[in-house]
Amino acid sequence: MSRMLIRRLTAALGALVLMSGVAMAQKVTIAVGGSACLCYLPTVLAQQLGEYKKAGLDVELVDFKGGSQSLTAVLGGSADVVSGYFDHCVNLAAKNQALQAFVVYDRYPGFALVVSPKQTGQIKSIKDLANKRIGVSAPGSSTDYFLKFMLKKNGVDPNSVGVIGIGLGATAVAAMEQGSVDAAIMLDPAPTLLQGKYKDLVILSDTRTQKDTLDVFGGEYPGGALYTRADWIEKNPKQVQALTNAIVNTLKWLHSHTPEEIMAKMPDELVGADKAQYLAALKNTIPMYSETGRMDPKGAKAVLDVFSQSSPEVAKANVDLSKTYTNKYVDEALKAAGK
């Protein structure tokens, strides 16, 4: 056999292997509830590290202003999986819609209830929020539910406030600086950016640390997770396992690298112009990220307790929490990683 023929056969075989590799990569669309928010960083970081590809997936991340919009995309069939807050699974279980979280990447929610710099001195407590305009990422999102919970907890009628969707990133910061809202539920890096500019910034409630989360909720409270319709999980177990492997590997990488190394991997448009403030926010946020990806059953119960207090519909529904999440795929991923 001539050398030329051998070279051609080798090239053809190589092309065939490449083509089969492309064909094997399963396409999955993840709807993210605001990728500028550090609460969703593991989802984006997994893409930047190539973890989805390593797991045999071709993942497209589609960005939305808030969790309610990303959830709508999955319920409507234009996306496969939500990267959003677990509490939606509990809330929709009360409406007989079966959604299930399969890997959790936030141990607590990271919400901060921040007063607009233009209202410093005017709003000193949550009780002062009655009849004010308050920003959330999007109406019906987890930020909105948290707002209603905190208002009720402090004796303020949630119907007395005007709720305005302002997103989570630069749009939220602009709304606060311009005074188009009087206060807002914010997530890092936005509150840290404002704290850097306004030293007297007032934060009425803060769940960015374990201590503050325990003070507010009485226990750990899971935030960001990958979740989707239970029937999609049933039909696509290989894709679910691959996504879980990617996130678990990303969490392991995240906790074994410095904040500077993590920031260097993130897209420039998410880091923004003020790298020092982003880094400060990232340092604040790292303890929030799960080390395992597992759902803590006590945390799931805390979510149900909060929603039962703020939603009569959830309180009456007798929600079966065991159907709103599964640790099966995380356990497999940890076993494969030797943990």
Summarize the structure.
With 339 residues, the chain is α/β, with parallel strands linked by helices. The protein has helices at 3-24, 41-48, 51-54, 67-76, 87-93, 142-153, 170-178, 190-197, 210-217, 230-235, 237-254, 259-265, 268-271, 275-285, 297-310, 312-317, 328-336, and strands spanning 26-32, 57-63, 81-85, 99-104, 112-115, 133-136, 162-165, 183-186, 203-206, 224-229. It folds into 2 domains: 25-109 and 221-336, 3-Layer(aba) Sandwich (D-Maltodextrin-Binding Protein, domain 2); 112-206, D-Maltodextrin-Binding Protein, domain 2, CATH 3.40.190.
Would you give an account of this structure?
The chain has 339 residues and is of the alpha/beta class. It has two domains: 25-109 and 221-336, 3-Layer(aba) Sandwich (D-Maltodextrin-Binding Protein, domain 2); 112-206, 3-Layer(aba) Sandwich (D-Maltodextrin-Binding Protein, domain 2), CATH 3.40.190. It contains 17 helices and ten strands. The strands form two sheets. It has a five-stranded mixed sheet, sandwiched between helices. A five-stranded mixed sheet has the order 7-6-8-5-9, sandwiched between helices. α6 links the parallel β6 (133-136) and β7 (162-165). The protein is globular.
